[in-house]
Amino acid sequence: QGKFTLLRDTRTDGSFLVHHFLSFYLRAGCKVCFVALLQSFSHYNIVAQKLGVSLTAAKERGQLVFLEGLKSCLDLLFGEGEEQSGQPSPLQFISESASNLKALFDFVRTSLTPTGSDSWKGPVLLVDDLSVLLSLGATPVAVLDFIHYCRVAVCSQLKGNIVVLVHSNEDSEDEENELVVNSLCHHSDLILWVEGLATGFCKDVHGQIKIIKRVSLELTAEQDLIQIYQYKIQDKNVTFFARGLSAAVL
Amino acid sequence: AAEMAAAPAAGGAARGRGATSFQRKAAAGSRLAAVAGTRPSVRHGQLLLSSGVPSLDCVLGGGVAVGTLLLIEEDKYGLYSNLLFKYFLAEGVVCGHDLFVASATEHPDNMLKELPAPLLDDTCRNELREEATAVKSEDLQGSMKIAWRYQNLPKMEASPTTSTKFGHYYDVSKTMSPELYQSIKWHSFYLPEELSLQPKMKICNMNSAYARLLQSIQRIIYQEGFDGSDPQKKQKNILRIGIQSLGSILWGDDICSSDTPEDVHSLTKFLYVLRGLLRKSLSACIITVPAHLIQNKAIMERVTNLSDMVVGLESFIGSERETNPLYKDYHGLVHVHQIPRLNSLICDVSDTKDLAFRLKRKLFTIERLHLPPDLSDTVSRTSKQDLAESAKLLSSGCGAMAIGKKHLDF
What we know:
The structure holds two protein chains of two kinds. By secondary structure, chain A is an alpha/beta fold.
């Protein structure tokens, strides 16, 4: 409870982890607020169905609050001044010069604050992906502030979890992005770092995942626990195995 | 609620693309008629369009999916990227799709007149058959005596196999006859004209040229019903959008001309809003970007993340590779930087990572790059260095699958 998990990918696509966490938390009965900035609702829905969860049903019973970033942005720009019950758009920062993600945070907080009739287990905030906010004009400081406010609201106050996906690259020239990613790494309780194999493309092993449990944050003078596995993504499943022990090799 | 893209997916489920919710189809009989010039993808049930170059379709995993963006990083003089741009539009004409062409350099009306002519079925098949027989006659020169174990292995496919029913071939030396393109509906956006019409306007702090273009695209999508907003429209069609040299100085953006651009976010905001428009309509878009001019590499990284497919072209013109015997058969290299994973955990990435293109005898093809064996007796320094350079290229893959570190020397 109250954990911040960072999903990080380098030179590969870590979105399979997002799909996993989404279906995992929904199946566990948690209330999920999903800020999906890069893909449409139907994309996640189709993959979630393969993983055994229906997002439409979850939305209907109030378990899932889905912010479709693309649609919200279009409503903001071409919405012809419609105001939905006076609430500002969560992505308001795109059109305003003040790079202030407060509207987005308010959206997250209102969606995850339990109402009287809710019987869900802990709230979960899922973000895919944070690097897009930088592309849309938010400053790194604003993004980090947003995450900080979310942590206070979701992790500390509501005892929920947060899972965030970011992209990073060792020789990336995107300094703002690296700043955000490094800062988040320092504050995360668990980091799942997905990378391509150092030897290049392989059909049977799609990459390696480094699981870093930040035990050092607990101030018990212990080192972080690092585990490395390799993985292969299939149509409905991802298989993990120890390094060098891919089924293709054995 | 209107269904957008019909696909014969398993279980008879239809993929809804609009703002409407996902709907399950009751019976296969009530499926909508397929849209002309498209075919459903086996992987993710999305409708695919041909990019106009069948070998590029293979590389992209079958074609350009409806609702996605294909970004081409221009080669140095823009020759080959312009060609791909024209192929995409020409394919739209041949399939009967609607076109939306935006450019800041030349008027779209003139561009339309210069589209390549499609090769009719029999002439095209003859050309390809000539190629195949030329190759076969060399192979039949006798069974292998030394490497006889390799006798029965399948022959190497130089060009990715395609079925010519989806996608067409074009003759670059001839222009399309006016009858063909006069029958389709197309919209043009020529920036100098548009800017003179209305005074400058700004939406969400974006470059006004981009803002104007977005408004134009959104208006066409809405008015022509590509987003399913007009349920009366029975005959569904695709809108092919082509935007030429986006990000260049002619669009009013200084990312190509300055190390520290004034507004770093305009292009990425544009791409994000465009992505939203594409996702909710029956359309597909090709954009060429002069990436080699953009000094701030962070912008290209963000642009890549916001696009679905990214293909970079590197031509040999003017470089030392033009005369290098290693590359004598080719005109340039193709770098596939990104392939999308749509509606699925996996994507259709091709095994071939080393791709090159050539424009020969009126046909533009993308093929697996074959480096000839290094048979020199002495180890010449220049050729070894070049091989190492190409090997570095070879070890890099596309963004959808994992890319390894720099060239490792075994």
